[in-house]
Design goal:
Helix content: 25-40%
Largest sheet: 6 strands, antiparallel
Shape: elongated
Number of domains: 1
Structural class: alpha+beta
Number of strands: 6
Radius of gyration: 23 Å
Strand content: 35-45%
Strand order of the largest sheet: 5-4-1-2-3-6
Length: 154
Amino acid sequence: MSAPDFSVWWILVPVLAWLVVTLGVTLLRERRKHRAHWARAQKATDILAHGRPATAQVMAFSDTGERRSGMGAIWAVATLHLRVQATEIAEAFEVDQTTSIDLAELPDYAAGKTIAVKFDPASRDVAVERSTRSAAYYGADSSRPHAAAKATGP
């Protein structure tokens, strides 16, 4: 009775195939993350360039614990529950805004504070205007209407 021939290729080929598939999946995920990051930053930049000015009262502040760094600053990624009141429309609306805030400016975004924002009237997407003393970082910015938001008068 002869024993089957054993070759290192019986082990090496499946391991290499697994590594190639894992690398491919990882690269695709990173590419999607990069595209989403770029799209959020571009959307926020567009809203700031072409959006309507408004003021927003911070109803709630929640630090996600995530930090970003670059351009000589460190930002905290936070979720703000905002009540946005535009000057040219009579109705206010509420939105949850995830945004990056310079660590030194966190007290300026506490609950009860009023901040400057710009918004797109069609989609009601919001972008927080940054102070001139810090660099802008819009990679984490995204807004969505608050689930319990109802249009109300002033």
